[in-house]
Amino acid sequence: MTADRLIEIAGLLVGLLYLYWEYHADWRMWIASVVMPVISLFVYWRAGLYADFGIDIYYLLIAVYGYYTWRRKTRRVATLHATRRNDDSDASHLPISRTPLRLWPVLAVCFGVIYLGIAYVLLHFTDSTVPWWDALNTSLSIVAMWMLARKWVEQWLVWLVVDAVSTALYIYKGIPFYAVLYALYTVIAWFGYLRWLREMRNASA
């Protein structure tokens, strides 16, 4: 087995751990989200997925922000926790919530600007063979990671699109282990969305 394949397998295993923690809204997912990009940087560069390579740098930065945000106690949640619980459960951390309606237009505009910007760079400054699809995946991922850092439940729906496109891209680019990983992500994204909805409703009951 080649070194490239071993690195892909390592990325697959870390990705599965990340997915498990994300599904359970566990803050430890941010630890995996630091390790995963380090592995993926090599994989994406070798495959010529330059936008995916670039976004991994963003992932490293947003992982720090997400860890801080998820672990930070808001005054309201801390007060509720003090009156109802005595343990150190996730109830003391940032709660799951819906994306504020007023922010959807902002997110849409940000996506459009990022998408066109990345596509332009890929078309004019790289030898990418899939510039528009690579740009689509990258721009959606940037938006989805921000939503995830804020713990907004709709982030799962954005990831559903990202994961489906990624699966097709990795099959096309001959990265089978990552294709398997993202095919699994696609399925889990829907169930993750339903689980987060239940947790959000239970927390507000």
Give a written overview of the molecule.
With 205 residues, this protein is an all-alpha fold. The protein has one domain (3-95, 102-204). It is built from 8 helices and no strands. The protein has helices at 3-23, 29-47, 50-71, 75-84, 104-125, 131-149, 155-172, 176-204. Helix 1 packs antiparallel against helix 2. It is globular, with a radius of gyration of 18 Å. The termini are far apart. Mean pLDDT is 82; it is low at 74-92.
Keyphrases for this structure?
single chain, 205 residues, mainly alpha
What can be said about this structure in brief?
Helices cover 78% and strands 0% of the residues. The protein is mainly alpha-helical and 205 residues long. It is globular, with a radius of gyration of 18 Å.
